[in-house]
Amino acid sequence: MRIGLYPGTFDPVTNGHMDIIGRAVKLVDRLIIGVARNDEKGPMFTTDQRVEMVRAEVAHLGSKVEVRPFSTLLMHFAEELEAGIIVRGLRAVADFEYEFQMTAMNQRLNADIETVFLMADPRHQAIASRLVKEIARLDGAIDSFVSPAVADMVRAKVKV
User: What is the mean pLDDT of residues 28-49?
Assistant: First the structure.
C-alpha cells in the first residue's frame, strides 16, 4: 500500500491546501494529513481545532484520507505511519528554497522516503494562511481563499 503524508500547520486550512490534498489523494492508496502542533508559531487555532477543521474539509474524500496531529520530527512521524511519500505544495520560488533544504535534510534522515512536490494551481499561488488571518483581522474578505465554513471560523476567532 502506498501511503502519503501531507504535513502542515493548516492554520487555517486554505483552498490552496485543499487543491494539493485533492491532487495528492490521486497519487497514493492512503493519504494522511499531518497537522503539526507548532505552538511556537502562535497559531490562531489550537491543534485540536485545526485537526477538526481539516477533517471537516476532507470528509467528502472518504476513508482514503486520515487526519492526525503530530509533534515529533516529520521523518519520525512518517516512519511511524510507514509513509513512503511526503507531499509538499509549492507556490513560489521562496517555497522552493525552503523545501529544497528540508528535503535534503529529510533524505539524509531516511533516504527511503521520497518527497513529491505539487505546484499550486495558479488560482491559489498567492494564498497563505498567514495572509488569510491578517486580512480577516483587518476586516477584509477572505471568502475566495478558504471554504465558507473555515471563513466563518476565522471571522469568529478575530472577533474574540
Answer: 92
* Active-site residue, selected from the candidate residues 2, 41, 76, 130: 41
CB 90 within 8 A of CB 96: yes
Active site (annotated) includes residue 41: yes
Amino acid letter, residue 58: V
Grid coordinates representing 79 are 516512519
Is residue 149 a contact partner of residue 56, using CB atoms and an 8 Å limit? yes
CA–CA dist 147, 38 (Å, integer): 23
Dihedral angle sign, alpha carbons of residues 20, 118, 38, 41: negative
pTM of the model: 0.94
Contact 115, 83 (CB under 8 A): no
Catalytic: which of 50, 88, 129, 133? 129
